[in-house]
Amino acid sequence: MRPHASAPPHRPVLTLLLAAVLLVTGGLLLASPGRADAADPLLSRGKPATSSSDEDSTLTPDKAFDGNPATRWASAEGSDPQWLRVDLGTTASVSRVRLSWEVAYAKAYRVEISADGVTWTTLATETAGNGGTDDWTGLTGKGRHLRVYGTARGTSYGYSLWEMEVYGIADGTTPPPTTGAFTAVAAGDIAAQCTASSSSCAHPKTAAQAQRINPKFYLTMGDNQYDDARLSDFRNYYDKTWGAFKAKTRPAPGNHETYDPAGSLAGYKSYFGAIAYPAGKPYYSYDEGNWHFIALDSNSFDDPAQIQWLKDDLARTTKGCVAAYFHHPLYSSGGHGNDPVSKPVWRILYAAKADLVLNGHDHHYERFAPQDPDGRATSDGIVEIVGGMGGAEPYPIETVQPNSQKRISGTYGVLKLDFTDTTYTWQYVGTDGQVKDAGPTYTCH
After folding, report:
1. Could you list the residue ranges forming a coiled coil in this record (predicted)?
2. Which end of the chain is more exposed for a tag (fewer CB within 10 A), N or C?
């Protein structure tokens, strides 16, 4: 599939060309169509790149293949056609090309492959591009050179790509094993006090979509039940929808779970029991494949016991990849905005080279480029995703944060997270089953 997402204008001067010559060396057509391209390795990172033009000396072709989401290539402004090309260094069977557009995107372009850099064969054609991320999968092409050839700009500027990624299998190599691969589904801010009898009730629809994905397990990022998370409300609402896969759920609490008149987290603890309190505390960890998952209670980040437990837990793990999830996001462009309560925890996670943080609280979807606890973009940073569209009333986007890459408000959905022993990626899937956004494929620190 090819999810399109409009990139929000944030720098009117930039010009970005579609640019997608992502690697592949040699040959012509026809790769093995039966192969699972999602597991194919990234071929284009750091490979030699050329372009038809550059806007200036800082926006060069290599910037689209350096793995840094904060750098980009941009073509000269106001002229068609333009192209971006990569030399994979050897012949390869290309299965996937992923293009992350800046504001200056391509309305029309071709993804082409070549054995010699002279004669080109079309792998994919776009005629109604709208920017954001274009993820071309299921491709069957063989060659050494790959390019994105833009024929119509989407803006008055040029073409600009943050990243162009080419995936496939180089000649003479064996496809990597998929050992350790698994899928999880995540959402926060879920069960409003309504049922499927109301057409406007969203959590039955997000639950149905989550169940259709049929993941290894489900994560929740707090505010599982509104308004004050009484046990009776869990039974009357959450249990009728997301409760269908309660046994496969690994929850975290939110601020609404603290409002229970019976006591903070009382209904939450009674409903989930040992699922949410496997060690007698509302924070815990578990492993799947080469991943270590940590569920935290961000209502009590001032509790020294939880902080010490987190440090000890990270010191003990032998897994190569780390993901944490809790309710309050350190960075958010929504109504609640940035929440500094999470910064000390981010510092601990960042020092331990954690990869991914999942949050709720703000009722929208948002993904951020890798950043450090102080909000500086860096390739060794943590990727944060806000996934608060599980069923509660949406919040508008208010103040866009510096490293925010994509924001969606008003569209209910769930996160489909795909993990391997060394990588992770995700899709934001709406209740209609359509992919509304797709994240890059990141390699674990």
Report:
1. none
2. N
Q: What is the spatial distance between Cα 237 and Cα 15, in angstroms, rounded to a whole number?
A: 49
293 & 233 share domain: yes
In 3D space, the residue among 269, 277, 227, 267 whose CA is nearest the CA of residue 391 turns out to be 227
CA angle 418, 419, 425 (to 5 degrees): 55
18 by DSSP, 3-state: which? coil
What's the confidence (pLDDT) of residue 177? Answer: 56
pTM: 0.65
Element (H, E) at 267: helix 266-272
Same domain, 112 and 156: yes
**Together in a domain, 318 and 369:** yes
Is residue 180 within 8 A of residue 420, CB to CB? The reply is: yes
In total, how many domains does the chain have? 2
Model pLDDT for residues 32-70, shown as the tens digit of each residue: 333 334 468 899 999 999 999 999 999 999 999 998 888
Structural domain containing residue 404 = 182-443
The answer to whether 306 and 281 have CB atoms below 8 angstroms apart is: yes
Between CA 72 and CA 77, with CA 75 as vertex, the angle to 5 degrees is 125
Domain co-membership, 338 together with 379: yes
DSSP string, 100-156: EE-SS-EEEEEEEEESSSSS-EEEEEESS--SSEEEE-S--EEEEEEEEEEEEESSS
Confidence of residue 1 (pLDDT cuts 50, 70, 90): very low
pLDDT band at 172 (very low <50, low <70, confident <90, very high): confident
Assigned domain for 388 exists: yes
Report d(CA 355, CA 319) in Å as an integer: 12
Q: What is the CATH number of the domain that holds 276?
A: 3.60.21.10
- Select from 140, 170, 200 the last residue of a domain: 170
Which residues, at least 6 apart from 136, have a Cβ–Cβ distance to it below 8 Å? 2, 96, 97, 98, 99, 111, 123, 124
Stated as kind and residue range, the H or E segment containing 315 is helix 304-316
The DSSP letter of residue 352 is T
Question: Residue-wise over 68-98: b if at least 16 C-beta within 10 A, else e?
Answer: bbbbbbbbbbeebbbbbbbbbbebbbbbbbb
Q: What are the tens digits of pLDDT across the range 109-141?
A: 999 999 999 999 999 999 999 999 999 988 999
